[in-house]
C-alpha cells in the first residue's frame, strides 16, 4: 500500500539512524544535518491544527505500519 498524501513516513536504518532518499538509495542523515532535515521533512502544512504521530515497533513491516496508521486516521474522520 502506498502512503496517502496525509501520511508522511520517516524511515530508520537497521542501526536506528534516520534515513533520507538519495539518487543512490537510502542513506543515513548525518548528525550535523538532523535539524535541517527535520525542519524540511516534518514541517506541518500551514493549515494543520493537529498532528498525529504513529510510531510502530522495529519488527513491524513498513506496509503493516502504514495500513495501521491509515486505519487509525479513518476512525478520526
Write up what this structure looks like.
Strand 1 (19-22) and strand 2 (25-28) form a beta hairpin. The chain contains 2 helices and 2 strands. 30% of the residues lie in helices and 10% in strands. The chain has a two-stranded antiparallel ribbon with strand order 1-2. It has helices at residues 34-41, 62-76; strands spanning 19-22, 25-28. The two termini are 20 Å apart. By secondary structure, the protein is α+β, with helices and mostly antiparallel strands.
Pick out its properties.
10% strand, alpha+beta, globular, two-stranded antiparallel sheet, 77 residues, 2 strands, single chain
What's the gist of this structure?
This protein has 77 residues and is α+β, with helices and mostly antiparallel strands. The chain has 2 helices and 2 strands; from the N terminus they run E-E-H-H.
Strand order of the largest sheet: 1-2
Oligomer: single chain
User: Which runs of at least 5 residues are low in confidence (pLDDT < 50)?
Assistant: none
What is the overall number of helices?
Answer: 2
Query: Structural class of the helix and strand makeup?
Result: alpha+beta
User: What series of H and E elements makes up the topology?
Assistant: EEHH
What characterizes the major β-sheet? 2 strands, antiparallel
Give me the Rg, rounded: 14 Å
Mean pLDDT: 85
The first-to-last residue Cα distance is 20 Å
Estimate the strand proportion: 5-15%
